[in-house]
Prior knowledge:
Blueprint: H1 5-9, E1 12-22, E2 30-35, E3 56-60, E4 63-67, E5 69-72, H2 73-80, H3 84-90, E6 93-97, H4 105-117, E7 121-126, H5 132-138, E8 144-148, H6 154-161, H7 166-178, E9 182-189, H8 197-209, E10 215-220, H9 226-232, H10 248-259, E11 263-266
Helix pairs in contact: 2-4, 4-5, 8-10
Amino acid sequence: xxxxxxxxxxxxxxxxxxxxxxxxxxxxxxxxxxxxxxxxxxxxxxxxxxxxxxxxxxxxxxxxxxxxxxxxxxxxxxxxxxxxxxxxxxxxxxxxxxxxxxxxxxxxxxxxxxxxxxxxxxxxxxxxxxxxxxxxxxxxxxxxxxxxxxxxxxxxxxxxxxxxxxxxxxxxxxxxxxxxxxxxxxxxxxxxxxxxxxxxxxxxxxxxxxxxxxxxxxxxxxxxxxxxxxxxxxxxxxxxxxxxxxxxxxxxxxxxxxxxxxxxxxxx
Length: 268
């Protein structure tokens, strides 16, 4: 992104939350900025309020809550910069999440550039659902790309998320080949979708083939977002899906480590 500091601090976009003191979605203590809007409709999505770009009203504890607000990069960075001492001690920093933050490419690029300008570590949690030209613009300001790979089979991916996965897999290869940031592959492990040893092995083999990729994270399915669907007046399509049985995620981790050179971690 070209221009002066003042130019990109004035860039605006829409977020729905800023979460401070997180120990997930990147190393160390992090501030996570959640951008509004997503192209996918994953059945298990724990942030359904992220999917629509529009500002929404969601019932929370019996009271209406406005979800989504327009901000400038300067406003967001005022919050992010408050915790710089914690980032310095822990190796943490700023993580962009969503939704799919690449759907607001100018805001995403400006936030990452603003963080790098003051020495803050940067990460993005993303499915890579964008043209590579869009991704290429953020790579110079990115330390870590946490990329969701949900399935290798395009038809099954589309059935459960609404979109096929060709573009995402192609972008994973291009990001890895660029060698401009650390690429970590993350897999939400969902019962009935991708929780077989073969399906996880297929994803792990793909990750292991990517140049420079050494880590894969298995994220166990949970129902923490179920109440949000009720608050939005939407059905929760995973309501009757059982949780992963005890020991299943550990067995999948062991299989990944036995058959690839990847470091496999449970949780992100």
